[in-house]
Structure formats: C-alpha cells, structure tokens
Amino acid sequence: MRTPLVLLVASAALAAPLAADAQQPRYLNPRDVQEATRQHAEVVEEFGGAETGPRASYVEGVGRRIASYSGTANAGQVYHFTTLNSAVENAFAVPGGYVYLTRQLMSIMNDESELAFVVGHETGHIAANHAQARKSAANSSAIWGVLGQILGTVVGGDAFGGLISQTAQQFSKSRLLSFTRDQEYQADVLGIRYMTAAGYDPNGGATMLTQISRSTALEARMQGDRNRSTPEWASTHPLSENRAAQASQLARQSGRTGGLRNRDVFLGQIQGMIVDDDPAQGVIDGRIFTHPDLRLSFAVPTGYLMQNSTRAVSIQGSGGQAQFSGGRYDGRIEDYINRVIQQLTGGRTQLALGPIQRTTVNGIPAAYVVGRANTSSGGVDVSVFAYQWDANTIYHFVALTRAGQGLAPFGTMVDSLRRISTAEAAAIRPRVINVVTVARGDTIQSLSNRMAYRDFQVDRFLALNGLAANSPLVPGQRVKLVVYGTRRA
Q1: Secretion signal: which residues (predicted)?
Q2: pLDDT-based confidence at 222, cuts 50/70/90?
C-alpha cells in the first residue's frame, strides 16, 4: 500500500512445433497490442509501479536484444520490457508485446545471461501465441485476491471497484492465466534459443531455473514465521523439478560452449537495488504492517497472513478475511462507511446492516458497522471499521467472517491501528543489494552475518548467490549481500 487512495514439462515439448519457428515474420495481433497498450499504465500501478533510470533502460536493452531473435516483425518496436517495483519474485507476459519482471526476481539473478533467459522465456510465450491456447478466463481468479473471491460469492460478483481496481480484475481474468506445462517447456526452449542466438551462454537458463527453485524452497521454509502470503499473480509459472534438467540438456544440444554472462555488468546494475518491501509502500514484519510515510501501523492476529499491494493490504486466516485501504474523503465518517458498503454491493445486493456505532481506537475517532449477507451456502458477516485519521483522510478495514462472529476474529487487529512517531518512521529503512568483493579471511558465515536479517542468514546468503554450503570463496570474487540502505527522499 503505497499512498493514500481516493475512496473508491514433458519431453514432447522439445519436438512440438513452435510459432516462432516460422521463416516468415510473425505479426502480433493488433487488437492485443491495442489492449496491452491501453492497460499498461494501470497494470504498472497495480503491481508496485515501474523502475526508472539506468537499470530500467538496461533491462529494456537486454529484452529488445533477445526479442530481435523471436521471429516477430518489428520486434524492436512492438516488445516492451518493464521492471516492476515489487517484492514478489515473478515475471509475466501479456499478448500485445508487454513483458514484466520484478526487481525481487532480479535480486536472485547472478548475471546477464539469467536475465536474458527470463525475458526470452516471456517473449517466447508471446511469440508462440500461447495465450490463445490458455484455459477460459472464467476459471481464473488471479489478481482478484482472496477478498475479491469471497466477496464475489457473497454479494454479487464484479462490483468492488473501490477496493480492487477494475483493471486488475479484467487483467487477471484475461491475461494472467497459468500456462500449461507444455507451454512452459516450450517457452524455455524458445528462451534458450533466443539467448543463444544473441550470443549468451545457454546455461543461463538452467542456472536461473535452479535459482528460482532454491529461492522458492527457502521461502516455503521461512513462511511460518513471516505472516506473508504469496499473491496469486505470482503463481503463473509453476516450477517442475524437470525444467532445470531440461534446460541443461538444451544448453548441451545447442552446441555452444560458453558465451556472454556479463556478470560484472549485471552486478553493477543491481547495486543498491531495493529488495523485499519498499518502505514507500509499507513493510510487513511478522504480524505487523507499518507504513512510515502514512505514519500508521497495525498488527494482524496470530496465524494470519498479509499481502501488500499499492492499493491495499489483504489479510487472511482461519477466522476470516479482511482488507485495509482508504484515503482522502471530505465528509462524515458515517457517509464514508455507507459509501464503502455501496461499493461492495454495487447497488445490486442488499446487506442486512446493524446500526453504525462510534468508538475511539488509540485516540483515533472511529466508527463501524456489521452486516449480514445471505448466500446459497449460508450467512456471512460483512463488517466495515473506519478511522477518522485527520480532517480529510479516512482509513478502513473490510472484514468477512462466519455468520454470527462479526468483528470478533479481527478484534485485536481493528484495535491495534495506531499512529507511529517520527522516530519509528525514520527507523524503517529499505533492504538493498550490496555487491562486495571477497577479501582474504572472509567465509560464508562471516559474510552471512552482514545480511540485514534476523534469521536464516546463511541460507539467504547461499540462495541469493547460488552457492552451496561447501562452495569455496576466493579473494577477489564478487558476491551479493542484502544490507540496510537509506530512505529515498
């Protein structure tokens, strides 16, 4: 949540015919291009904003170089590569020539050939027209997120423009559907083919897939302590243990030995890059969400998970699901709550509402209401708890619980919202990549001790750098650390 908001792999894949194999240049569908161009700005906003400056230009340059070997007409003009300011490791492509990857995914790369593979893989999905073979959008609920799914069943479908952007809803249903295993393998084949033609070491595909696999495994180990859920849009690339092995086989079959890795150039580009949460969007630390710019903090109940985005923070657990958002509003807090209810229902479904009640939370004027929605599977309580932050700013939680429970499962959460001090806000610093040169006497343990984490320091260091526990460190070798940086003005 960044700023206040106005209320609102089978072996057959190797032999399968690929669209990009055609000798004649292939043109992207003009309708896809038009739609992707129209949605681009809102997609970028939905997923954390775009990186700018030299690093963004660097990624764009590598992407265009790779795309020029895709067999697509006017590839240099029709493909676009955007680096998203997101703490989720992922990359995705949409028909119409738009490829997106996150800074978090870049953080686990170790050289330019791995970047070339990622953008080549995503370009392959577009060039091979995989979108046309995907399952019906009606079966997908990607970016909608957990709250949208439940609300959709409770109060009437696509009616939540104030909580989840219409672009995100449409984009999730039409674009971010999971590819089939064969399509993923085909995209790997194409990505390696493109990067090899561009002069890169084809082994970058296998090392990149291994990096993703290791990072995913480590994330799963840490998940119990982090109170953080992975958004569904980050699940568009299911990994198979066979993909890295296939990539190695493809590299051998390419006949190329060696090729561009450009490790030093790549490491220079990611020096100082933010990893994990960007404080400008708020940070999750265990059960606590803190936004230093908005000067607020709250804690979720034990066992609940959070998911942060530019527009809202979603919370889920065994007792219910909730979402925190809000922003500028000139008017009474009761009118605000009624407007939230109106946006939830879209004016098409009625909630049986109780009275709006006033209260105070940590010195903040607040009000709340609990309503009941009857569904085919039984009743659901829908609650809105709003806070008058200042004269023209209101924040709120929307909570969904089993009928009769009301706000009880989230009682500690709604009571925990508080203002943070200037000192608390200043203490929140971003984590950034720091590329260091191994000195004589450095060990895996000594370097790991410099990582800006309280736990899993050695495991994080090894995964970040693609090292094994017994990997030798050589003086002069360059490795990545994650350290605390300074807040951007």
Answers
A1: 1-22
A2: confident
pLDDT bracket for residue 416 (50, 70, 90): very high
**CA gap 165, 143 in Å, rounded:** 10
CA distance linking residue 193 with residue 19, whole number of Å:
13
- pTM as predicted: 0.82
Distance CA(413)–CA(299), nearest Å, equals: 6
Enter the DSSP assignment of 321. Answer: E
Helix 204-226 crosses helix 181-197 at what angle (to 10 degrees)? Answer: 130
Integer Cα distance of 222 and 326 in angstroms: 31
Fold of 429-484: Membrane-bound Lytic Murein Transglycosylase D; Chain A (3.10.350)
Angle between helices 112-127 and 181-197 (to 10 degrees): 120
The CATH fold of domain 280-425 = Protein Transport Mog1p; Chain A (3.40.1000)
In this structure, the number of other CB atoms found within 10 A of the CB of residue 220 comes to: 10
Residue 422 burial by CB count (10 A; 0-12/13-18/19+): exposed, middle or buried? Answer: exposed
Query: Of 162, 165, 86, 227, which is closest to residue 396 (Cα–Cα)?
Result: 162
Summarised one tens digit per residue, pLDDT across range 450-477 is 999 999 999 999 999 999 999 999 999 9
